[in-house]
Amino acid sequence: MPSLNDIRSTFLNFFERNDHRIVESSPLVPRNDPTLMFTNSGMVQFKNLFTGVETRDYKRATTSQKCVRAGGKHNDLDNVGYTARHHTFFEMLGNFSFGDYFKSQAIPYAWELLTRDFGIPRDRLLVTVYHTDDEAADIWKKVAGLSDDRIIRIPTSDNFWQMGPTGPCGPCTEIFYDHGDHIWGGPPGSADEDGDRFIEIWNLVFMQNEQFEDGSMRALDMQSIDTGMGLERIGALLQGKHDNYDTDLMRSLIEASAHATSADPDGPGKVHHRVIADHLRSTSFLIADGVMPSNEGRGYVLRRIMRRAMRHAHMLGARDPVMFRLVPALIRQMGEAYPELGRAQPLIEETLKLEETRFRQTLDRGLRLLDDELAKLPEGANLPGEAAFKLYDTYGFPLDLTQDALREKGRSVDTAGFDAAMAEQKAKARAAWAGSGETRDAAIWFDLAEQHGATEFLGYDTEESEGAI
Ligand code: ATP
Ligand code: MG
Ligand code: MG
Ligand code: MG
What we know:
It catalyses: tRNA(Ala) + L-alanine + ATP = L-alanyl-tRNA(Ala) + AMP + diphosphate. The structure is a single chain. The protein is of the alpha+beta class. The chain is about 45% helix and about 15% strand. The protein is built from 15 helices and eleven strands. The strands form two sheets. Strands 1, 2, 5, 6, 7, 8, 9, 10 and 11 form a nine-stranded mixed β-sheet that branches. A two-stranded antiparallel ribbon has the order 3-4. Strand 8 and strand 9 form a beta hairpin. Helix 7 packs across helix 11, helix 8 crosses helix 11 and helix 8 runs parallel beside helix 13. The C terminus is likely disordered. It binds adenosine-5'-triphosphate and magnesium ion (MG) (3 copies).
């Protein structure tokens, strides 16, 4: 049975054999791209090659790219632990052509790798194409011999790929694997497509447009290819598993979590172990790439992920910091492919330990408050926004952590009430400043804070009380 490390190599070697340059993964913090919070796909480091702004000494590349999807256009944070196929951190395997080959070559490469090198049975595969893309449908028919009902035309943005609000984009064709009718879910485009029976494994994007901030789009001068396949998803199916979390690599992290918390990996705390294993990877890789927990921007997203993981460890009964103890298991699994992890090991461990130690001081009390508030409510009622705000402001609970905790109880938060409480606190802070005689500077400062507050990855957090951190 091939390990995830073997599968990564098979992919890169296949494309290297087909004249692609193996290029290293770029860091999770995109260079010179303020529009993007974290690298969310393989194409990010090649963005300027597609638009023609930059050229390099290769026209074909292949990578295994570190990706984080925990905010912005692609946000899978809430899926983690609950679907078989989503992580916040994952590796995206990709092959790229910059104005070299296009559809008629990209599709045969994908088919050959999947059915010959990986040996996946053809009758388990089906594909989608953008509804107007007859050319891609014809190529699939010719190359793979797929019948019409296995080439599904999709009219939505699912088959028009965009990295974010701006940048290169284009129609795409996606390859799905049918895990069998013992699992709930319908084929792509059907009413039950959110199930986990048909799992998307590979997306081939035909890069031919560029999207601008004002909503307009231009045709690019050259036609390019950008593909992305989740290593954990292809790994699951090649290891005869349905669930990404049952692959060798994820399983060993889950077992490390079970060991550290003395809680059965497959018992009632299963979801907690999955979340911990996932968040261990995203937090460790983010720290290795220079992100530190803070109260704004990328650092706040990191802090949110860390605190979430810590709550899940707490749910498993852990009363001492746990996350930092799992780092060696991660490095054993991934340190060879990503040497930056080993280099940053002391920093990762210290950062996790410090954050967990501090958060523990308020976590217990916050959870107790949450339980008390819930006990006061009628059955099924949402948590009032004020209570969620108190958890945020006094106990350092990011809103999504509270939501995550409530989800297990089938409840949610009155987010409008939360926003109102936040706005009220802001107004009070503003008034206090105004009374301080520093009105002009204060006005500028608050305008800046307001602007930052408006961006999706900052949120209003600059005022979070120190005691909560
Ligand atoms: P899905 O529809 O399952 O959420 P997606 O369409 O958002 O996936 P793409 O943006 O097309 O995914 O990314 C390319 C590939 O990366 C996907 O086909 C999948 O194999 C993998 N992938 C995407 N998101 C995740 C994730 N959160 N965790 C693991 N693998 C992922
Ligand atoms: Mg998605
Ligand atoms: Mg999809
Ligand atoms: Mg996709």
